[in-house]
Sequence to fold (362 residues):
Amino acid sequence: MMVHACLLAALLARQAVDPSPVTPENILAGEVEVQRPMDRGASAQNAPAATEMNAESIEAVQRGLRFLASLQNDDGSFGRGRFAKHVGITALCGLAFMADGNLPGRGPYGEVVRKSLEFVLNHATETGLLATENSHGPMYGHGFATLFLGEIFGMSPEDGRVRDALVRAVDLIVNSQNEEGGWRYNPVPYDADVSVTICEVMGLRSARNAGIKVPRETIDRAIAYVRGCQNGDGGFRYMSSMGTSAWPRTAAGVASLFYAGVYSDDSIDRGLQYLLAMAAPDGGGPMSEAHYFYGHYYAVQCMYLAGGDRWSNWWPRIRDELVQRQSDEGGWIDYQWGSAYSTAMGLIVLQMPNRYLPIFQK
Fold:
């Protein structure tokens, strides 16, 4: 078992806020079956490098966290309008606060995380599905919520409720994988797309990191499906049938391979080249505003996991771009999905150098 030393340091630094005792046993994570090679993510140690965070990005994060906390509903959920009481958005918001080192009941935003967790657990069904009754295409939210529970359990493995919900959530993912090896909107093994598949793969990886058993066959089939969605230009199409490449789904495809345990592969190299050509921040490519936060949420993870020059060149550009795009209120705007979603995504990206979340640690 590996102690997440950086999280321990962060929590110890918060003792003035919450004097509850912190011990290594409280934040152990499960052994990882497949370790990332040292040459991948070589620039990504478990603490920010001196040049990764600057005064502007640190202030942007703090403003963003304050704004996001103000959006939490009384029942612990996040999301408004057509995405009200959304399990997936609530999970992403919880992850945004955890990326600052907060845990349920611990840290400046520990209560926000605790309420988020309670909302997710309250919507864990007997089937294992994590969703509210009015969810449309619930596997998106289920994947994000499984990731959230995996990160919670990896840091606080003593919570039996979290483990039970996480195990059932993983079982549902495994049992709803289709014949091609992917997943789609509903928990039935019919069709699949890259966008939903990455959500499930990240949920499975987080659960496995936390010590929950995930069948190797499930991962192998997911790898085969994702590879089958890559076009000749290195980009990824939405489904395995014919289709055009797009940078957000390419980021999702490359991230899927990384989190499935593929670290050195021609598919990854070609996908990264496509991202560099089509979506480099600060005007370095013909970037589209469509799915901006979704795309950069996965793209920054791709570059982080690739490490080396890819990370060191990509990171400061997306960091500075997000700081410039922050609203006066402290959040980020997405007119389709709402400010809770876009602000959570922006904060997770900006806090990548913290490496507090187990899934982002070496």
User: Anything to note?
Assistant: Residues 1-34, 38-45 have pLDDT under 50 and may be disordered. The beta strands are 2-3, 28-29. The two ends are 13 Å apart (CA to CA).
